[in-house]
Every structure is written in C-alpha cells, then in structure tokens.
Amino acid sequence: MLRAIFSHPSGRIGGTIVVIYVVVALLGMFDVTPHNPLQQYRIDRLHAPNASYWMGTDLFGRDVASRLMKGVGQSFFVGFCSVTLATLAGTVLGLTAAWFGKAWDGLVMRIMDVLLAFPAILLALLIIAIAGPGTWTSIAAIAIVYTPIFTRVVRGPALSIKAREFVDAARTFGSSRRYILTRHLLLNLVAPLTVQVTLALAWSLLTEAGLSFLGLGTQPPASSLGLMLADSRNLMETAPWLLIFPALAIMISILGFNLLGDALRDIFDPRTRRSAA
Amino acid sequence: MSYLTRRLSTFPLVMLGVSILVFVAIRMVPGDAITAMLGTEAGLLTPAQREALANYFGIDQPIAVQYWHWLLGVFRGDLGISVTYGKPVLGVILERFPLTLQLALMSMCVALLVGLPAGVFAATRNEKMSDLAVRIFAMIGQSTPNFVVGLLIIYALSAGFGILPTMGEFTPLLVDPLRNLGQMILPAVTLGFAFAASVTRISRSAMLDVLSDDYVRTARSKGVPKRSVIWRHALPNALIPVVTLSGVEFGYLLGGAVLVEQIYALPGLGRLVLDAILQRDYALVQGCVLFIAFNFMVVNLIVDLVYVALDPRIRLGEGG
Asked: Which residue in the set B15, B154, B273 is minimally distant from A125, CB to CB?
C-alpha cells in the first residue's frame, strides 16, 4: 500500500506533506516547540524572522513558529476527532441502512437528506449558535456536517455488495449477521472509506481554520491557524510574516491531504487514472 | 417511479424536515426564549410580566402547537421579528439578498471564464508540461481556503501597489454601477478562485473522457479541423458535469460567503447570519437558515432537472 502511494506522483508529494504535517502536529500537541507558545517576549515584539524566532514574533512578542506548531496540532486534533466521529457514525448508519432496508433505510436516508439540505458551513454555524463556540463544538459541528456524506459513501456500495453471491453464500453457511457485516461488507468498503477520510480531513482543516478565523472555533489564548490569520489582518503591512506563514501552513496541509486523497482514489480505482486531474 | 417524480416528491418532505430541524435547533439553545430575546434585561421582569410575555409570544403552548403556528407564519412570509433590527426578519433578509446574489453570479462568471478554457486547454495537451502546470495550479487553487486567498490578495495589493480595497459604505449596483463593481470585483475574484480550480479540474477530466469517444475519432478521421472538433463536437458533451458542478457551487454561494463577506466588509447574507449568531438574535438566525436552506435546495433541484434534460440516460437509470 505504502509503496503504491509513494510510486504515484501526487501520492508521493501528498504523502510526504501529510507525514511532515502529522509530525509537526504531534510536536505541537506535546509542546515540543522552539519557545513556549504563550511566553511574551515583550522586548522582541513584532520581530522579523531571525535565527532565534524562525518565523518572527507577534504583537505580544510571542514566537510565531511555536504558535504555528501549536496551531497545526490544534487543527490536527479537531480534524482527527471530527473525522473519526463522522466515519464511525456514517459507517454504522450506512451499513445498517443498507442491510436492514425498508423503514430504517428510509428514516436514516431522509434524515441525511435533511442534513445535506444545508450548505456545510451554515450547518456548522447553526450548531455553534446552539452550543456556543469552542474546540469541542467545532469537532461536533464538523462531525455532524460530514456524517451524511460518509453514510452515503458506505450505503451505496454496501447495497451492491449485499446483493452479490458471496454474501448469499455466507448466509447459507450460517455466518452470523455481525460476521457478514464486518467481514464481507466492511472490508470491501475500506477503499472508498479511505479516500473519503483523506478528503474529509482536508475539508475539516479548512473548516476549523474558517471557524476560528470568525472567532467561533478555538478560543484565545489557545493557538490556531485561523486565529493567527485573524490577528494578522491589521498588521499584515508591518509584519507580513504573521500572515504568510499561517497561510502557507493551511494551504500546504490541505494540499497534502487533497493530493493523497486523489492518489488513493487512483490506486483503488485504476479506471479513473486516465482522466484524474 | 422515475427519477424525476421521486426527486420532486421528496422535495416537500425534506423541506418539512429542514423546518423541523431549524425550529427544534433554536429551541435547544440554553435558557428560555424570553431571556434570549431580551438579554440581561429579562432579569428585571416580574413573574407576572414573564408569563404575559410568554403568552403573547405563544411559548407557553406545547412545542408541536408552537411549531404549527410558526409553520403557518412561514407560509405567509412571516419569519418573526429581528430583535437587533426591530424589523420583520424576511425584510432584513431580502435587503441583504441582492448583494449575495450579485456576488454569486460574479464569482461564477470568474470561475467559468478562467476554469473552462484552462480545463479544455489542459485536456488537449494531456500529459504535457502545460497540462501539468494547469493541473498543479488547479490543485493549489482547490486547496486554498477562500479567506486565505482574500487576505493574500489584500496583502499583495497593499504591499505591492499601496492600494487598499474600498471597504467603506457599500454602494448597491443600481445606485452607482461603477463604484459597486469596484467594490465587488475583488470579493468575486476571491470566491471565484477555488471555484475556477474546481471547474478546471472537472472540465479537463470530462473533456478527456469525451475526446476518447468514438464519435470524436470519427469526426477527426473525416478531416474536421482540430479546433472545430474540440469546441463544436466535444465540448457540448463535456459540459454536463461542469453544469452540475457550477449549479451546486452557485447554490452554496447563494447561502452567503460568510468569510469573504467578513474580510471585505460586505453586508451580505453570510455576514447577516454571523452577526445574528454573535448577537443571539434567534428569530433572525432561524429565518436566515431557513431561507438559505430553501434556496440551496431549490438550486439543487434545478441542477438535477437540468442534468436530466442534458443527459436523458438518467431518466431511466437509478439515481441518487
């Protein structure tokens, strides 16, 4: 699998970016940063990048590189938690909808239709309006927005696999329902799910940054890429490093997940390889 | 049941579900509606006054009855009164909507004018350097959040040319078209950036599919000039996914571009929702969300209908 990813051109670039991203995120999460991200070096306020402050300092004299690492950690945490929740919920709902059919399928899919009737960011904003801003609300909001998509991704293929002969055969052998659902259906859904998880991670990074930028996600003094960009708005002319580095961090990390997602789609489905952009 | 009938019959059902969700969601906000409406001043009310207010707003009735009255109101165009503006919610929304509509249309123009030619160009030069360049650019475009694009544009303009986008009082299109376009062009480019990238990617892959079809090969072997094969024979069929994508994106944009409106200080629908949330103006949040979801669903329905009209195979096949 790894060899397949790294022999695919966009997989190689995307995979490398994602590996670096995860390492930086973990370092940030466990406070392995060049400086304390909350320490205010008052004497060095708005200092341009140099050997001591690799990405300069902000208005309060805090080290931008350390805050950026912390922010990447924060976005990874939100993305990882929300996508995990959405994947679990979507898989369970999609699998059971496909397996039991009838009323349950109808109910689940109509609820998903209702959730899909909202533009994603609006649904996230509505959830935040109810629960109040914060990290856990962002996680819940992103998870709820993405659950219908996972449900659909799982239900469609699950329906067609359910109708295949090997599932009938398993049933005649007397395999239990749980065994068929997990071994036969779920294992065959690993490919579309992996692609969707990668693309969902890209989207969750984007949404987390957007919500924090609006002041509805991560709350200060905690660090997040969206918050750093919001803070840079009034200072971008005097201290462009406050804008450039977080902007690049967001762009490159989303790019990494998108490239990896595209590569995975090609690897799992060689038919699209010819036309994939 | 044909795809069309099924799609049309589920529309009212989903809309009803949306209205229930919005209604219930707003009532899940901690604290009661009177406190939410009056803020800290609610603390000054005597229990009798509180009861009278509850009776006046009908919130002393069971939730199903409240929903029924609210739904009847919605059908009459009564979405309640906005506390912040002291005006009917629908009126406030309709004041903001023209800007959002204009912004959505302008960004779509930007996206199609850039994305379509770029996609076709890349498809005709498959696997060459120029194709690769277009693809890399499209991938970067798709991976850049629009508020980051907006901030970078503002920075590039102010640092490179010493100009700042005009962010003062917003001028409606009909009052002063030139001034209005001057204010709207940068937000439109910002929003159109990622949109153009998606159009490029999808038109490239659709074009590649069509170019390998038999009828295109036949046209080529008949000696039809290359330019004519691409633009007259292949492009119309490659447009189907582009139409779908543009429609869906347009539906999103009609919901207001919260972040871009915020960056360029434009009084559109997106900022209205955001302000309503920050000011806890729940009638307004509820009205906006319902209005936007309705638009989004109608646009998606139209996109599906257009898709069916363009590709008759869907009418018979199994659809979403």
From this structure: B273
Give the pLDDT of residue B319: 43
Farthest CA pair distance, chain A: 77
Instruction: Say if residue B152 is in the same domain as residue B208.
Output: yes
> Hey, is A19 helix, strand or coil?
helix
Q: How far is CA A220 from the centre of its chain?
A: 22
Structural domains of chain B, count:
2
Q: The whole model's pTM is what?
A: 0.85
Nearest-CA distance from B70 to chain A in Å? 19
pLDDT above 70 for B316: no
- Structure ipTM: 0.84
DSSP B61-111: S-HHHHHHHHHHHHHTT---B-TTTSSBHHHHHHHHHHHHHHHHHHHHHHH
Report the pLDDT value the prediction gives residue B12, as an integer from 0 to 100.
Answer: 86
Interchain contact, B289 vs A126, CB within 8 Å = yes
In terms of residue numbers, what domain contains A259? 2-268
Which member of A114, A202, A210 has the closest CB to residue B259? A210
| B3 within some domain | no
Task: Taking residues A56-79, report their average pLDDT.
Answer: 88
Q: For residue A134, give both structure tokens.
A: 């914060």
For position A233, which CATH number holds?
Answer: 1.10.3720.10
Instruction: Give Cα separations from A220 to A135, B127, B230 (angstroms).
Output: 11, 47, 54
Say if residues B152 and B165 touch (Cβ distance below 8 Å).
Answer: no
Q: Looking at the domain assignment, is residue B2 inside a domain?
A: no
Considering the domain architecture, whether residues B105 and B242 belong to the same structural domain is answered as yes
Distances (CA, A) of A94 to A51, A100, A116, A186, A193: 52, 10, 15, 11, 12
Lowest mean pLDDT segment, chosen from A132-136, A185-189, B28-32, B232-236:
B28-32
pLDDT in tens, B59-92: 677 888 888 888 888 888 888 888 788 889 999 9
| Interface residue ranges in chain A relative to chain B, Cβ cutoff 8 Å | 10, 110-111, 113-115, 117-122, 125-130, 202, 206, 209-210, 213-216, 229, 232-233, 236-237, 240, 243, 247, 250-251, 254-255, 258-259, 262, 274-277
In a domain, B111, yes or no: yes
B192 plus B276 within the same structural domain: yes
Closest-CA distance of chain A to residue B181, Å: 24
Predicted local confidence at residue B274, as pLDDT: 87
- With CA atoms as reference, report the closest residue to B256 among A97, A9, A108, A118: A118
What pLDDT sits at residue A145?
A: 92
- Residues A134-145: what's their mean pLDDT? 93
Containing structural domain, residue B172: 97-310
Domain contains A275? no
Q: Has residue A152 been placed in a domain? A: yes
Point out the least confidently predicted range of A177-191, A220-234, B287-301. A177-191
Residue A205: φ, ψ to 5°: -60, -45
Contact predicate B161/A242, CB 8 Å: no
Same domain flag for B236 and B112: yes
Q: Helix B282-310 and helix A120-131: axis angle, to 10°? A: 160
